[in-house]
Design brief:
The protein is of the alpha/beta class and 304 residues long. The chain is built from 13 helices and 13 strands. Helix 1 crosses helix 2, helix 1 crosses helix 4 and helix 5 packs across helix 12. The two termini are 53 Å apart.
């Protein structure tokens, strides 16, 4: 039996029509019909009922469809691993970045990745921090950058650095100079926060409480864009990473002041779904780390 036979069978089953399946497979109707007949003869079962409504799977055909899909998927992974082992990088990497980080890292990463690998592809997405950790954990993504606090206590990601959090607001509210602000002074200002429960809010509130300061939350807002919109309108100050407020700082609509005495810091991790077992994953991580190093000052990260 050939893998191609199973691929043809799957498409006919999905289309319920030989003629429609030929369009997907770019083959002739006679050739495709012959493949199905030979497959039935070899297995000694009828896989389809030919009806006026099209090709309907028999009970045996339904069993084969499930098995065929597994075999074809397994074979594709095998071919990818062999090509990877031989140094012919191919396949697709799914990479997840925290919100607002893509503008810094996607352009340099994609430039270098595309220059090095002509047969491979990288799909880079932004997602919420908790979602990134979950998708890495469940192997729905290959590589991801995420922050503490961690969703899983036994996280296996590589600790690559940390970042301080900033207070961002209008000059009238937090002052016109982008110099650090103490946690004590920040506690006296109206703060825009996420609705509970939220890991980031818990981190910020706990930092204030541990140092004996009350946290003056005035609005519960659940997207970065809404935080920035309210902050630009003078309805409060927001506490975010510098990467989240950089555009507003550059256009002059907000001032960003690092919180000090003490700083509020969170760790940065780079995780992989399968411990980077392929050359493509390892090379992807190397390229991503190079992009991070190149934008370190813009991100205001402290790398390990």
């Amino acid at each position: 039996m050939k893998i191609r036979w199973l691929e043809c069978f799957i498409v006919v089953a999905e289309e319920q029509s030989v003629s429609r399946a030929t369009l997907r497979l770019n083959t002739s109707q006679a050739g495709l019909s012959r493949v199905i007949r030979e497959l039935e003869q070899m297995l000694k079962v009828e896989l389809f009922q030919r009806t006026g409504r099209g090709m309907v799977l028999t009970a045996e055909g339904s069993i084969l469809l499930a098995e065929a899909r597994e075999v074809v998927a397994s074979y594709a992974k095998f071919v990818e691993r062999v090509e990877d082992f031989c140094g012919d990088r191919s396949g697709t990497l799914r990479i997840l970045l925290p919100m607002r980080l893509g503008a810094f890292l996607i352009p340099p990463f994609m430039d270098d990745f595309g220059a090095q690998f002509t047969k491979a592809a990288a799909d880079v997405f932004e997602a919420l921090n908790e979602d990134i950790q979950t998708q890495i954990r469940s192997a729905k993504a290959d590589i991801g950058i995420y922050y503490s606090p961690l969703s899983f206590g036994n996280d296996l990601g590589e600790h690559i650095g940390s970042e301080a959090l900033y207070l961002a607001g209008t000059p009238d509210l937090i002052g016109s100079e982008a110099k650090p602000i103490t946690m004590e002074k920040a506690s006296q200002l109206p703060i825009l926060v996420q609705s509970p429960p939220a890991m980031f809010r818990d981190l910020v509130e706990a930092s204030f409480a541990e140092n004996g300061y009350a946290f003056n939350a005035v609005h519960n807002l659940n997207t970065v864009n809404t935080h920035l919109q309210f902050a630009r309108a003078g309805k409060g100050a927001t506490i975010l990473a510098f990467s989240a407020v950089e555009r507003s700082v550059m256009d002059g609509s907000l001032i960003a002041r690092k919180i000090v005495e003490p700083e509020i810091r969170r760790d940065i991790y780079l995780g992989t779904a399968s411990q980077a077992t392929t050359h493509l994953q390892r090379d992807g991580i190397t390229i991503l780390k190079a992009a991070i190093a190149a934008r370190q000052q813009d991100l205001r990260w402290t790398l390990v």
